[in-house]
Design a protein that fits this description.
The protein is mainly beta. It has one domain: Porin (Beta Barrel). It is about 10% helix and about 55% strand. Strands 1-3-4-6-7-8-9-10-11-12-13-14-15-16-17-18 form a 16-stranded antiparallel barrel. A hairpin with a 3-residue loop joins strand 1 and strand 2. The N terminus is likely disordered.
């Protein structure tokens, strides 16, 4: 029997359980974020030397995007849901996070939900691991100045912030406890040594009650290319507590990458601490992350240290001004370094 048949049967059974009863009310909303900053970026490379660049760039505090989402009440507590979301670069007017990005790369899904069984969606879904990563660091999902995002999604963790060809189930909240599970069929190859390439299981279990929050996240992904047996497994635990005068954040993460040839294996262990504190109407945001990198080459850096300090000033419920300084460096031996100074504006609609 094909490995896909049990999955297809389970999916069909799930969808059958949500057989529509009657059409009723529906709604469609347009929403998004525009974030642009002016600043200075300095890069230092042991081989290429030093470069200084003045920039007007997108996504200093959050990656810009727009989306359309909708819900239809099918009766009996059943609802149909959908969303299509596209990244964009307002500094140039370009679509996507980069030139080769898919137009609806942030998400594109359709599914069904009930209050008692949760939500099941098919398509390109946001990864639960990504949501857990941004939840427990004060600079959230900034790909420019968030240390934890740097140590996770800028080269270490394979796979994207979302997965194509995926099924995702998000449970209802059970007294503050919530499960979020995604499975991707990857490239959907039918044969060959890399037939499972891109297949991934991505999940998180979160808890939130009052000032305390915590989550455990897990990802495993098949990265095989040319039959090299490459796989990666990652797990992360994070927590935060709001004391009123300040909110503390902490995360620990381990990312292990293995190959058929054990000499190529890599292990990364990351620790992040952060704080968010109100100052006037705004908030000071600070974060530090450090990663130990264990591989077989003594010539490559064995540590990465990154820190950032920022201030977020709300002008309204939808518009923020921000300033941030960011420093990132590979060490032992000294490797690439980067510093960023950013002054920007973010508008949500």
């Amino acid at each position: 029997m094909s490995a896909r048949r049990p999955l297809a049967a389970a999916t069909a059974a799930w969808l059958a359980a949500f057989a529509p009863a009657a059409a009723a009310q529906s709604s469609v909303n347009l929403y998004g974020v525009l974030d642009v900053f002016v600043g200075h970026v300095e890069d230092v490379s042991p081989t290429a030397g030093k470069s200084d660049t003045g920039v007007v760039n997108a996504g200093g505090m959050q990656t810009s995007f727009f989306g359309i989402r909708g819900v239809e009440d099918l009766g009996g507590g059943l609802r149909a849901v959908f969303a299509i979301e596209s990244f964009l670069r307002p500094d140039t007017g370009g679509a996507g996070r980069f030139a080769a990005d898919g137009f609806w790369a942030r998400s594109a899904f359709v599914g069904l939900e009930t209050s008692t069984l949760g939500r099941a969606t098919l398509g390109r879904n946001t990864a639960p691991y990504f949501l857990a990563t941004l939840r427990f660091n004060p600079l959230v999902d900034s790909f420019v100045v968030s240390p934890m995002i740097t140590h996770t999604f800028r080269g270490a963790l394979q796979g994207d912030t979302g997965f194509s060809n995926s099924l995702r189930w998000t449970s209802p909240s059970w007294s503050g406890l919530q499960a979020d599970v995604l499975y991707s069929l990857g490239a959907e190859n039918s044969s060959g040594p890399d037939r499972n390439a891109g297949r991934a299981l991505d999940a998180a279990l979160g808890f939130s009650r009052g000032p305390f929050g915590a989550a455990l996240a897990f990802r495993t992904i098949d990265l095989s290319a040319g039959g090299n047996g490459r796989e990666q497994t990652a797990w992360q635990i994070g927590a935060s507590y709001d004391f009123g005068l300040l909110r503390l954040f902490a995360q620990y993460q381990q990312i292990e990458e293995t190959f058929s040839a054990a000499a190529s294996n890599v292990d990364r262990d990351t620790l992040q601490f952060g704080v968010s504190a109100p100052i006037g109407v705004g908030r000071v945001l600070a974060s530090y992350a450090t990663t130990d990198i264990d591989d077989t080459s003594p010539a490559t850096p064995s540590r990465r240290d990154t820190w950032a300090l920022g201030y977020l000033h709300p002008m309204s419920k939808r518009t923020d001004l921000y300033a941030a300084y960011y420093s990132d460096a590979f060490k032992s031996p000294t490797g690439a370094e980067q510093t960023v100074l950013a002054l920007g504006v973010r508008h949500r609609f």
